[in-house]
Amino acid sequence: MAAGQEQLQDIMRQPAEILFRHELEALREEDSGNIPAGWQMSPQSVLKFIVGGKAGPTEITPKYIGNKRLIEMAVATLVTDRALLLIGEPGTAKSWLSENLAAAIYGKSGLVVQGTAGTSEEHVRYSWNYAMLLAQGPTPEALVQSPIMRAMEAGGIARFEEISRCASEVQDALISILSEKTISVPELGKEMNARKGFSIIATANTRDRGVNEMSTALKRRFNIIVLPAPADLSTEIEIVKKRVSEIASSYDLQAAAPADEALLKVVTIFRELRSGMTLDKKEKVKSPAGVISTAEAISLLTNSMALAASFGSGELTDEDLAAGLQGAIVKDDDKDRLVWKEYLDNIMKKRGAQWRGLYNACKEINQ
User: C-alpha distances in angstroms, 41 versus 31, 104, 221?
Assistant: First the structure.
């Protein structure tokens, strides 16, 4: 194996353009559509990369399982000069979709601004190497470009994660960039003009509404697409099963994949706690304060597999699942513990022999 390939295998989390490199190559080879300026492939091939299909003999795995029309709208937005804003509950694959769109369109998904309370305008526009600035004054060499500025220069896709967690003045630094497609650098007396292909994919969490609400002026610069939670039980099970398999393979977990019965139980619990109602609509249940998302279910099952591999037989047991459920649902909150206890006693306990082992394991760990 070549040294470069060994180094790639040692990366803890491979970016989408590396993880699915063979799929992207197959799509580019068979692509006969019109390729927009700055893109690596046609919009039709980007869509196939996201929703799945075949490129010659190569199977293209679906990266997003849900409404295909939403993906068509997202891809069509990026063909124009409009930026894209993906909104949804935690765990609705906003970041995953953003990463894979950037990988397919530009071939690079790593030009990312991570929105936090500490994100400053410099992260959006540019900053300076202050040692060089003091020694030489403002020079192009002393300029430190933001990921957005680098995307503008290359005609690529920049990603802005959790934009609503940034202060309003930081968000508003995007308005002129999205309107004029330039960043002015007055210290150098020049402007950075975006090349064709440049765009921004931003994500926002509906749980963060009211934290730093986006201005109307900024929202107008985006085409907004709301990503819903999985519509039904079978779709969510399919998503969870697929992602758990991919993550387990990436980490080389020496444990058997969760049985269909285990997947059904975990997803059922999550959907009921999330909605505040049993699946048959016959009983109300209390919801915990934390986020009970599809992403949490994926993480729970992956961690349970690691537990089974490291300290068990490699086969996922009710005790492994119970430990994961406790950590996912009870987030250091006495109220969550009571909510979980009520669910165990009022719902799970009454579901018969198939649920008895998981009920006992969960009851024991929630004492």
Answer: 7, 7, 25
Q: pLDDT by residue (tens digit) across 158-181?
A: 999 999 999 989 999 999 999 999
Question: Residue 179 belongs to what domain range?
Answer: 66-227
Same domain, 76 and 173: yes
Taking 50 as the threshold, does the pLDDT of residue 1 lie above it?
no
C-alpha span between 85 and 77 (Å, rounded): 10
Is residue 244 a contact partner of residue 257, using CB atoms and an 8 Å limit? yes
Cβ-based burial of 221 (10 A; exposed 0-12, middle 13-18, buried ≥19): buried
d(CA 37, CA 43): 11
Same domain, 95 and 221: yes
Distance (Å, rounded) from C-alpha 97 to C-alpha 203? 10
CATH number at residue 124: 3.40.50.300
Q: Whole-angstrom Cα distance, residue 260 to residue 354? A: 13
Domain contains 162: yes
Contact 259, 317 (CB under 8 A): no
Exposure class string for 56-79: b at 16+ Cβ within 10 A, else e: eebebebbbbbeeebbbebbebbb
Q: Is residue 98 part of a domain?
A: yes
Q: How far apart are CA 187 and CA 164, in angstroms?
A: 29
**What confidence tens digit (pLDDT) does each residue in 138-158 have?**
999 999 999 999 999 999 999
CA distance 45 to 141: 38
- Which helix (H) or strand (E) covers residue 113, if one does? strand 112-114
Whether residues 181 and 278 fall in one domain: no
Number of domains in the chain: 2
Tokens representing 352 are 């018969």
Beta partners for residue 85, in sequence order: 202, 224
The pLDDT mean for the chain works out to 91
pTM score > 0.90 for this model? no
Q: What are the CA-CA distances from residue 266 to residues 24, 108, 230 (Å)?
A: 33, 35, 14
Same domain for 207 and 287: no
